[in-house]
Structures are given as C-alpha cells and as structure tokens.
Amino acid sequence: MVIYYTKGLTSRAQAxxxxxxxxxxxxxxxxxxxxxxxxxxxxxxPGREDxxxxxxxxxxxxxxxxxxxxxxxxxxxxxxxxxGLPKRVCSPEELAWLEGQPEFWPxxxxxxxxKEARAKESGEGLPAILRGLPVPLPGEGPARLDxxxxxxxxxxxxxxxxxxxxxxxxxxxxxxxxxxxx
Length: 182
Prior knowledge:
Layout: E1 2-7, H1 15-27, E2 36-37, E3 43-44, E4 52-58, E5 61-67, E6 71-77, H2 85-89, H3 92-99, H4 104-122, E7 143-145, E8 148-155, E9 158-164, E10 173-174
Parallel strand pairs: 1-10
Antiparallel strand pairs: 1-5, 2-3, 4-5, 6-9, 7-8, 8-9
C-alpha cells in the first residue's frame, strides 16, 4: 500500500491529478486509466482488479491510496460538526474515548475519518447507522480489526485515515502538484 497527499487544491477536480501522479509513480501507468464506478459507487479501473485505489478530498487537501486489494481513505478538515452528530455515529466506547480527549472536535474528526475509510474500503459507502461500524480508536501506529488494517494521521487542522488489507505505511508521500488554478 502506498499513500499520497497534497494540499493547495483550488477545485475538487484537481484531486484526480494526485491520483494520476500516484498511479504513474507507483504502477508506471500514464495516462490515468479510465475510471468507472462499481455498484455502491466505489471508483475502479475496469478490468484491473489487481489495481485498487481510493481518493478523498476536503477543502484544499487530497489523499489517495493504492494497493493490490480493496482500500479506503478519508481526509477531513477539522471543524465543529453538528453538536448531535457524535451521539448518532459513535458507539458508547467511542464516545467515552472522545470525552477523554483534550480537544473534542479534532479527536472526533479523526474518528470520523477512520469510519469513512472503513466504509469506503468496503465499497458500500457510509451506512445509515455509523454507530455500528466498528473502527479502532485512534492511536499511534497501525491497528487491526476484523481482518483489516487501519492507520490514522492527525495534522495541523486536518485528520486522515486509511483502511485496507495491507499494513499501512507510517508515512505518506507529500507531493506538490503543478496544478493550474481555475
């Protein structure tokens, strides 16, 4: 598994530039292969089940992961979410962990990114009831749960996570893209 990150995007469409760079550097494919959507909406390269990817963007940030097995990533700008959201989407254990964190919203954003990454790995998207979607509590290093690997990264004003079948790397490739502004 490899993970690429960039910042400075001025439009959502530019996130595909990060994916194109990652695919070129990792798998030697250029131009970016055609992208289709599976049932449930997960993007894929048709006819290339050996090449799995996932892409996420939030604000001016983008994150993508490449692997030989299903993978999901999420990146989120830290913000104050709707006040009732944590109780609707977190298990009692997750809520207790959140209450013990020095900064509630950055911790919640990290937990949310883990849940989104798991949902995206499955290809089913976010289920109606996230409370029942188990993820490991954020911490240092990779974690395993239900046969899947997880890793999360807190950043300055953002949180990111990955979920997949391969052990995630400690670090990701931080790329500066030559992206024209639109």
